[in-house]
Amino acid sequence: MTLQEIADFIGIDCQEKKEITGLNTLLDSNENQLTFLENKKYLSDLKNTKAAAVLVTEENSKEVPSSSIALICDEPYLMLAKISKLFAPNVIEMDGEKPLIGGGTKVMPNVYIGKNSVIGSDCTIMAGAFIGDNVTIGNNTIIYPNVTVYRDCSIGNDCIIHAGTVIGSDGFGFANTKDGKYIKIYQNGNVTIGNDIEIGANSTIDRAVFNSTIIEDGVRIDNLVHIGHNCKISRGSILVAQVGLSGSTTLHPYVVMGGQSATAGHLEIAPFTTIAARSGVTKTIHEPKKQWAGFPLFEHKQWLKLQGKISNLLK
Amino acid sequence: MTLQEIADFIGIDCQEKKEITGLNTLLDSNENQLTFLENKKYLSDLKNTKAAAVLVTEENSKEVPSSSIALICDEPYLMLAKISKLFAPNVIEMDGEKPLIGGGTKVMPNVYIGKNSVIGSDCTIMAGAFIGDNVTIGNNTIIYPNVTVYRDCSIGNDCIIHAGTVIGSDGFGFANTKDGKYIKIYQNGNVTIGNDIEIGANSTIDRAVFNSTIIEDGVRIDNLVHIGHNCKISRGSILVAQVGLSGSTTLHPYVVMGGQSATAGHLEIAPFTTIAARSGVTKTIHEPKKQWAGFPLFEHKQWLKLQGKISNLLK
Amino acid sequence: MTLQEIADFIGIDCQEKKEITGLNTLLDSNENQLTFLENKKYLSDLKNTKAAAVLVTEENSKEVPSSSIALICDEPYLMLAKISKLFAPNVIEMDGEKPLIGGGTKVMPNVYIGKNSVIGSDCTIMAGAFIGDNVTIGNNTIIYPNVTVYRDCSIGNDCIIHAGTVIGSDGFGFANTKDGKYIKIYQNGNVTIGNDIEIGANSTIDRAVFNSTIIEDGVRIDNLVHIGHNCKISRGSILVAQVGLSGSTTLHPYVVMGGQSATAGHLEIAPFTTIAARSGVTKTIHEPKKQWAGFPLFEHKQWLKLQGKISNLLK
C-alpha cells in the first residue's frame, strides 16, 4: 500500500507513492514502515527513527528527520489505530497451501490446521486444538486438547502446551476518539515460543501489536497466566499460576514470578530476580539476583520487617 | 406451571391454579412470577412487589401485599432453589428450528450451532466454537476458536470474542440445607452483549439467575476476566486482565478497572471512575470521575500518601 | 521395570531385579515403589518408608531402613525427575477398548472419548468436550462444551463441569540441573472428583504427581479457579472465583475461600474456616471455625482493626 493511499484513508494530503509494508515503533521501524509520535516523552526516539513516514502533530513535526516524511495530524495515535486495520491479515485465509505435517506426528480428530502451516515430526496435536494459518510448530511438541494457536505464531521443539491455553490472541489495544469510542489497534504481530517450554492450562499469551511477543527457550509457565502483548520472557524464567504481565514487560533470564504476582507494563526485571507470590511490580528492577515482595514492592527482607512493624500497630 | 403445582413440589398447601411463568426478585417480578423474601433487609421491597406469589416466613408474611399470595415456609431461599429447577430449560434442545445463518457469514468446521439460533451476516464463527440453543448474534461479529456461548444468550454487531471465552455459564448460586448440602439455584437468565464489544481470551461471563447479565455497547474486556451473574457493565467501561466482578456489580458508563482488581457483589461504581490495578472495591462508589486504589480502597492520592506513611514505619 | 533397569537409566550401579511399579513419597510408597529423599527435613519419614528403594545422597543413606535399597546419587530429586518419564503413560492410547456409554447419556458432535473410558447413564457430554483415555464418569453428570478431562481421571455422579474447564492437566513440577535446565517431573497421578460437585468455567485442576488430587463430595468451585497438584478439597468446601491453591494444599470440610484468595503449598486449613476475599494463607490453620483475612493473614476482626490503625497513619 502506498503512503498516498494511507494518507487518503485518514484524510491527509500526501502525494508520496512510496510502498509501505507495515507499522512499527519509532525505533524499530525500517525504511518501508510507518510510525507515529503521540507522547513527547519519545521525541528523542523520533530523531533517530528510520521510518519512511511518521504520524505526528504539527508541533512535533519539526523533529522528524529529513529521511522521513511527516504525516501531520491532530491525533497521531488515533490515526495509527485507524490505519492498523489496513495492515491486518485475514481472520481466516481462504487460499494457500495445505498444512505440512511431519513424520510420526499424530493429529487427533476435530483438529483444525490452517493454510500454509507447518508442523514438525513426532508431535501430538490433540482433539479440539486449533492451529491457525501460517503457524509453525517444531518437532516433538505436544498440543493438548482445546488449545488455540492464532495465525502466524510459532512454537519450537519439545514444547508442551496444556489444554485450553490460547496463544496469539489480540493484545489489549485501542485509541480513544473524542466522543468516547474505542478504535481497535489491530495486533498485526505474533507470538514466538522457543524450545523446551511448558505452558499450563487456560493461560493466555497475546500477540504483539508490532513484531513479536517472545517466550524464550526453557521457560515454564503455569495455569491461568496472562501475558500481555509485546512481552519478552527470557530463557529459564518461571511464571507460577495466575501471574499477570501487562504489555511490553521484559523478564530477563531466570526471573521467577510467584503465584498471582503481576507487573505494570513497559518495564524490565533483571536476571535471576525472584518476585514473591502476590507481589506487584510497577518499576523496572535493575539489580539482578534480588528477592522482592509486596505491593508496593519492597526487597523481601524489608517487606517482612515492614509487616512486623505494621502488625505492631495492633499493640 | 400452576402455583398449586409449585406449592405441591415443596410440600406447601396452596389451591391457587394461577399460571406462574418464572421466578424473579421482589421488585422485578411481574404479576405472573414467583418471588421470595429471606432477608428482612428487603421488607420494604416486599411491600412493593407485584409478584403473583411470595415465598416467605410466617413472621414476614403480614407484609405481603394483598395483590400477592404468601407461600409460607421456614426457608424461603432454600425453597426458591428447589423450585428454580422446575423452570430450568433443557441443557440441550432436541426439537426446534435449524439455525439461521446470514449471508457472508463463515462457519468453520467443528462448530456447533444450536436450535433456533440466529446468526447475522458477515460473521466469522471459528473452529471449535459452541453456540448454544436460542442464541442470537448480530452482523459482522467474530467468534474465535473454542469459545462457548451458552443457550439463550445474545451478542450484537461488530463484536470480537477471543478464543476460549465462555459466555453464559451458570452463576455461582446455591442455598444451604441444615444438614450441609448445597441446593443449586438454577440460573435461568442469560447474558446480553451489545454492539462494538471486544472480549479477550479465556474470560468468563456468567448468566443471570433471573433476567440478564448485561454488557453494554463499546465495552472492552481483556483476558481471564470473571464477571459474575447479574452484573451490568455500562457502555464504554474497560476491564483489564484478570479483573473479577462478584455478582450484581453495576459499573456505570466509562468505568476503568485495572488489572487484577475486583469488586464485592451488590454494589455500584459511578461513571468515569478509575480503579487502579489490584484494588478491591467493597462499597458503592457514588461520586463520579474519581481515582481509587488499594484494598481497603482509598482515593488514589490518599493511597499513595498512605503508602509513604507505611514505608516510614521502617525508619 | 526392574530396579536394575532404572538404575542403569540414571547411571547408577544396582544389580537388583526387583520389579518397580511406580514412584511415590517416602510415606506413601509401598514395597513395589521407588521413592527419594532430597531434603533432610524428611529424614524421619525416610526411617519409616516401606519403599522398595530410595534415591538418596551418600550422607543420608545410613538412615535408609534395611527393608529398602539405597540408590546413592548426588541429586536425588533430579534423578527422580529423570526416572518419572519412564513411568509416564502414553499421551494417547492407541490400543484399548472403545468407551462404554451408559443408557440415556447424550454425546453431542465433536466430542472425543478415549480408550477404556466409561461414562455412566443419563449424562450429557456437550460438543467440543475431550474425555481422555481411561476416564470414568458416573451417572447424571453434565460436561459442558470445550471441557478437557485428561486421561485416568474420574468424576462421580450428579456433577456439573462448566465450559472450558480443564481437569487433570500436569502439575507444575520440575527439577533443576546445575546448568540451568528444568527436567520435567512427569505427573503420573490423576484427579478424582466425587459426587454432587459443580465446577465453574475455565477453571483448572492439576493431576497429582503421585496418587490423586482429590475433590470430595458436595464441593462448589467457581470460575477461573486454579487447584495445584495433590490438593485435597474436602466435602462441602466452597472456592469462589479466581482462587488459587498451590500444590498439596488440604482444605478440610466446609472451608470457604473468598474470591482471588490463595494458599501457599503444603499446608492445611481446618474445617469450617472462612478465608476472606483476596487473602493469602501461608501457614497451616489448625483451629476450626474461624474467619481470616488479609495478606499476611490475620483473624478477620484483627484485620479490620489493623486497617483502622493503618488508615490512622494518614491523620
Automatic annotation (TrEMBL), chains A, B, C:
Coiled coil: none annotated. Its EC number is 2.3.1.191. It is an enzyme of class 2 (transferase). Keywords: Acyltransferase, Lipid A biosynthesis, Lipid biosynthesis, Lipid metabolism, Repeat, Transferase. It catalyses: a UDP-3-O-[(3R)-3-hydroxyacyl]-alpha-D-glucosamine + a (3R)-hydroxyacyl-[ACP] = a UDP-2-N,3-O-bis[(3R)-3-hydroxyacyl]-alpha-D-glucosamine + holo-[ACP] + H(+). The active site is at H229. One of its GO terms (cellular component) is membrane. GO terms for molecular function: N-acyltransferase activity; UDP-3-O-[(3R)-3-hydroxyacyl]-glucosamine N-acyltransferase activity. GO terms for biological process: lipid A biosynthetic process. Residues 19-86 form the UDP-3-O-[3-hydroxymyristoyl] glucosamine N-acyltransferase non-repeat region domain. InterPro entries: Hexapep, LpxD, Trimer_LpxA-like_sf, UDP_GlcNAc_AcTrfase_non-rep. NCBIfam families: lipid_A_lpxD, PRK00892.1. Homotrimer. Belongs to the transferase hexapeptide repeat family. LpxD subfamily. PANTHER family: UDP-3-O-ACYLGLUCOSAMINE N-ACYLTRANSFERASE, UDP-3-O-ACYLGLUCOSAMINE N-ACYLTRANSFERASE 1, MITOCHONDRIAL-RELATED. This is UDP-3-O-acylglucosamine N-acyltransferase. The lineage of its organism: Bacteria, Pseudomonadati, Campylobacterota, Epsilonproteobacteria, Campylobacterales.
